[in-house]
Inverse folding.
């Protein structure tokens, strides 16, 4: 009877330790999920800024090309 009781106590202690390990792992997983969400938001913001910067650079290039054509037109034909 005593041996069975000791075995039961050992099993309960093991289960308790495993439960704590699972809870700790779950908490770490939630922390990682939050960190991934934050990084995803940062990457999305960076992508938007990059697209906006490309649009600005493209617009500046187009304006400069138009200005060059305009200057050449007046230099050659006037």
């Amino acid at each position: 009877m005593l041996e069975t009781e000791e075995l039961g106590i050992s099993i309960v202690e093991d289960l308790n330790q495993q439960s704590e390990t699972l809870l700790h792992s779950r908490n770490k997983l939630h922390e990682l999920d939050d960190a991934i969400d934050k990084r995803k938001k940062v990457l999305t913001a960076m992508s938007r800024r990059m697209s906006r910067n490309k649009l600005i650079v493209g617009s500046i290039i187009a304006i400069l090309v138009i200005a060059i054509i305009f200057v050449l037109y007046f230099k050659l034909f006037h």
About this structure: The mean pLDDT is 96. The helical segments are 2-77. The two ends are 114 Å apart (CA to CA). The chain has one helix and no strands.
